[in-house]
Amino acid sequence: MVKIFKFTEYLYLVVAFFSIYRIYTDWNENREFAYLFIFFSIISIGMFFFRRSYRLKFEKHKQNQKQ
Fold first, then answer.
1. 12 CB contacts (<8 Å, ≥6 apart)?
2. Which residues of 3-15 are buried (b: 16+ CB within 10 A; e: fewer)?
3. Are 25 and 17 contacting, i.e. CB atoms less than 8 angstroms apart?
4. Contact 19, 44 (CB under 8 A)
5. Mean pLDDT, 10 residues at a time, the chain of 67 residues
6. Contact assessment for residue 5 and residue 55, using Cβ atoms and an 8 Å cutoff
7. CB count, 10 Å around CB of 37?
8. What parts of the sequence cross the membrane (predicted)?
9. pLDDT for the residue numbered 18
10. Strand positions, DSSP E, the chain
């Protein structure tokens, strides 16, 4: 189960990097889409850190239950 949590964390980073790439390529051609991808990249990075902290709390709680 924890492996799935790790996978989804890094999936958010992939979305963030893809969004940053799209910002770079679309900035001069279509600013409206670039602004949309700025929003996606910020949300994805925030979700990465949120999911990471949630997973670490879950692992810590699981360790404390075993002891």
1. 44, 45, 47, 48, 51
2. eeeeeebeebeeb
3. no
4. yes
5. 82 96 95 95 97 91 86
6. yes
7. 22
8. 7-27, 33-50
9. 97
10. none
- What is the helix (H) or strand (E) element at residue 35, kind and residue range? helix 31-66
Chain position carrying tokens 């900035």: 27
| Confidence at residue 13, expressed as pLDDT on a 0 to 100 scale | 96
Residue 31, both tokens: 């600013």
Q: What is the pLDDT of residue 67?
A: 74
Question: What's the chain's Rg over C-alpha atoms?
Answer: 16
| Residue boundaries of the structural domains of the chain | 2-66
Which amino acid is residue 50, in one-letter code?
A: F
Residue written as token pair 């051609």: 29
